TrEMBL record:
This is Amine oxidase domain-containing protein. Residues 10-380 form the Amine oxidase domain. The lineage of its organism: Bacteria, Candidatus Roizmaniibacteriota. Pfam families: Amino_oxidase. One of its GO terms (molecular function) is oxidoreductase activity.
Amino acid sequence: MEIAVLGGGFTGLTAAYYLAKKGHAVTLFEKEKVLGGLAVGFKQPNWDWYLERAYHHLLDSEDDILNFAKDVGFDEIFFRETITSSLYDVSSHPELVSGSGFNGIPDQVRDGFQKVKMEADYRIFPLDSPQDFLRFPLLSWPEKIRAGMVLAFLKTSPFLSLYEKLTAEEFLKKTQGKHVWEVLWQELFRKKFGKYAENILASFIWARITKRAKKLGYIKGGFQTLINYVENRVKGLGVRVKKDFTVDHLGKSREGFVINNKEKFDVVISTLPTVIMSKITQTIFPTDYLQRFSKLKYLHAVVLILETKQPILEKTYWLNICSAKIPIMIIAQHTNFIDKKYYAGNHIAYVGWYVDRDDPMLKMNKKETIEFASPHLKKINSEFLILNSELFIGPFAQPIYDRDFLKNKPDFITPVKNFYIANLDMTYPYDRGTNYAVKLGKEVSKLI
Ligand SMILES: Cc1cc2nc3c(=O)[nH]c(=O)nc-3n(C[C@H](O)[C@H](O)[C@H](O)COP(=O)(O)OP(=O)(O)OC[C@H]3O[C@@H](n4cnc5c(N)ncnc54)[C@H](O)[C@@H]3O)c2cc1C
């Protein structure tokens, strides 16, 4: 069968691989010059490894991508422990002022890991082990015990239908209490989901906690190394890879499908964002089918990469900014995870946001984004010097898992025979990730 796979990210590449293995004639269409989609990487001339345009790591529970790597003969994935921390501001938490709530708290906790160059108004707390949690000064002992029990329950419980009946806020307030919600979760949800934060289903928090891991995985050479490796493997299996090719129209012929009024196929698999897929399939899908997708909401990822001489964060890899005074969602100090020697000895930090389509950040160029972020970054480290920078926008990168999403998300099977969808909306309840992209690509290939 002649099969067109639309999109050359992890889902499309995986589908192309398994379909070509089955003997189908596969063509992969990708609008960019390089495959990889949201996981795409780039390399400065003096770097040895690729770097993802958006921070990427794996979790040790993510078997699908590990198994896929084995299937294609790639064994360059490794895991290591990292430090996740959270930043709080003193003005919102008066108990953080020295002398009031600090009595008896060990120094390394009081000062977090950012000892010297941070404004006195802020504190960083490591928060990724039970010990860290017990030392966390913003919750009382009864609150910590109760919150810890709920987290342990979520970690071990199977998926419950209850998680789709309550929002995460309702669930966490009910089970952990209002104060714990305010301290641990509220700002994280607001930063990740913006104005949709209060509608996010509890299933999202279940999936996050179930999958949480202390050890994070990475790919030797960067994720792009695996992407390039799979590209070569699929080409070796006869897949035609058409890069720099935007699919802007899909039509139906008597026997199958026509791409851009030219190329004919028996089967189409779309891994494109649902919004884009809906635009190019207006003539083949019934209107009511496409209308349901108009109810899905997304945020766009904005990621600023800073290459610096000194690290912005001293030890932490992943810093959640739990302060409304700093309009940044996360900072990921990549070189506290992966050795800086692969990036010419310089430090790499990602600064990340998720924004709505009308957010002014989407209109900012790199220089404006740096100007916007810098005063806030200086509060955390006053002494960093930017050598190079990159700005990346990931369109439709964060689906909003609310009740509308549950009712309207796409499925593999569509009303048009031989047209399949496999895209990041279908990783629910798990947050999108390369592991799930690979899983979707493999599963959709089994339907053909
Ligand atoms: C900020 C951020 C952080 C992330 N962190 C992690 C992480 O730590 N770990 C992890 O595993 N995952 C992470 N992810 C998620 C991961 O990158 C994605 O889940 C995965 O790459 C999705 O793959 P995909 O193939 O389904 O979609 P995509 O990668 O979006 O692929 C779709 C492809 O379709 C192409 N395309 C679009 N329109 C057209 C068109 N008209 N014609 C032809 N081609 C078209 C696009 O260019 C793209 O290459 C992160 C994502 C973001 C945005």
